[in-house]
Amino acid sequence: NAGTEADVYISVYGERGDTGSRQLLRSQKSKKFLKGQTDIFAVEAVHLGHLYKIVIGHNGLGSGNGWFLDKVVIKDPITDLDYTFLCHRWLDQGQDDGSIARELAVTDSSTLPGRQELELKREETWAAEKWKFQKGNTLQFYNRLTHGFICLNPDSRVDALGDKKNKYGKAFLMWIYA
C-alpha cells in the first residue's frame, strides 16, 4: 500500500524561478506510482539554473491515495547535473504527520549553486584574515551596548569590563597587532 492512484503534482525551484505546479502525467511505465517502482517523467520548462528545492504532493483522491515517496532525482539536460531530493516519508492523511505534500531541499551538496565559488571565497578570506589569530595577538572588539572594549589577550585572559577611553579610539571591530 505504498503506491498511489491520486494525481501527483510537482513544482521545481531554481535560481532563475520555478516551474509552477505541474501534474506528473505520462510515466515511462504503464502504471505509475506503484510500490517499489521508479517512474520517469519528462517535464518541459525554461532552464531554471541550479535547482534548490521541490514541492511534491498529490490531490488525496482515489482509493489508496496514501503514498510513500523515497526520493526524486531531476536530471538537467543542459548541464547534465543530477539533483537529488530525499524524502523517505509518507504523503498520506492517515500516516506520518498527515501531510500529502512535501517541500524537499536538494541533498547533493555538489550541485548547490555556487558551492565551489563560496568555498573558494571562504578560503581566500581566511588566508587574508588568519594573521589576526596568530599567537601573541590581542583581539579587541568594541561593544556598542557598553560603549567599551572587550579584549581577548594572548594569554587567554578576557577583559570584558572594557576601557571606555581606550587609547586606540572607538571602532566597531578592531584588531590590534601586539
Automatic annotation (TrEMBL):
Q: Which SUPFAM superfamilies match?
A: Lipase/lipooxygenase domain (PLAT/LH2 domain)
Q: Which residues form the PLAT domain?
A: 1-105
One Pfam match, by short name?
PLAT
InterPro entries attached to this UniProt entry: Inner_ear_hair_cell_LOXHD, PLAT/LH2_dom, PLAT/LH2_dom_sf
Q: What domain of life does the UniProt record list for this protein's source?
A: Eukaryota
Q: What is this protein called?
A: LOXH1 protein
- Which organism does this record belong to? Onychorhynchus coronatus
